[in-house]
Amino acid sequence: MNQIISFFENTTTLQVVDLLIAIGIILFLRIFSGTISYIIIRMFKIKEKKAKSIKESAFYSPLKIFFIILGFYLAIVFLKEPFHLTDDIMAIAYQAFIIISTIAFAKALATSFTPKSSFYNKLREKTGQKVEDSMFDFALKIIRMMIYIVAAFIVITTLGVNLNGLVAGLGIGGVIFTLAAQDTAKNLFAGVVVFLDKPFIVGDWIEIENFEGTVEDITFRSTRVRTFENSVVNIPNAILSNASIINWSKMEKRRYRMNLCIELDTPLEKLQRFQLRVQDMLQARDAIYDDSIIVKFDTISDNGLNILICSYTDSIDYNSYIAEREDINYKIMKILKEENIELAYDTKTVHVKNNK
Questions:
Q1: What are the residue ranges of helices labelled H in 228-356?
Q2: Is 93 in a helix, a strand, or coil?
Q3: Tens of pLDDT along 210-222?
Q4: 227: which DSSP letter?
Q5: Which residues does 235 contact at the CB level (< 8 Å), separation at least 6?
Q6: What is the pTM of this model?
Q7: Nearest residue to 120 via CA among 109, 105, 130, 106
Q8: Residue-wise pLDDT tens digits, 68-88
Q9: Which of 147, 204, 266, 330 could form a disulfide with 249 if both were Cys (CB 3.0 to 4.6 A apart)?
Q10: Per-residue buried b or exposed e for 209-220, using 16+ beta carbons within 10 Å of the residue's own CB
């Protein structure tokens, strides 16, 4: 308390005026930080008329923070001579100003490369369909990571840390770190391989080992798949890069296949008529490829006459394929009924020997 009283007793009128000016600088930039930020962003977005859209820009909040911090820094610089502030205090003020500004603008730049930003949408429109969504998002993740790495190096340099010593330390500890994180490194490199090879993209229906489902996201380390049981499984990219992946979404057509076993005593005329009617029915369907239709008397078994019915349909989606298959089955059953043809069943004849 005595030190505070002593400070004001030794403060001259001129110093009080300088202190009030410094406070005025802080308040001015604090009050008008939003307006100045708005004007700067508006200069780069001349066509944008909505104030709300400008304030939702990724750089609006960071610019406000910058001008508020700038106000404090300018106030300290202004008070250096009147209050004889030491070089250590000025160095700390400068470091704080640079570090906070760097973090704010790094966050703004990184936010610009997210799907929620307007810049992202404009960039996506310019690239069009030349770059797949998964590859595009992966590239933006790398850009965001590089922004934060550069920002971290700027902060470290501002704090006066010797990067040469840091690099040397990383070289010594690199072996230990590599051994500890080799699985992570494998997954990272495998993630790059997945994007370059493109065995699947986000939204594809894939099957791998014991998992089957829709790809929801591809990250540096793993791929997230939502199974048909509605659970989520994260598969390490290292496993994906070395596994056999079935991409059901890449199918151009689906195969319909049916084996019918007809009773042995069915007249051949009925059998041939049945085959012709089934073939005509399949050819009349728009979803069936005519050149893929097979309706043949395949084999003769102990139980009956086997008819192979096979064709390809353009119903790629699973639900539409099931609906198409169901309708074909109904029509086949209708033809069987109209031709009075019975399907055969597994039967066994047991002969009982009478020793009497």
A1: 237-241, 268-283, 318-338
A2: helix
A3: 888 888 888 777 8
A4: E
A5: 208, 211, 222, 223, 224, 225
A6: 0.49
A7: 109
A8: 999 998 988 888 888 888 888
A9: 204
A10: eeebbbbeebeb
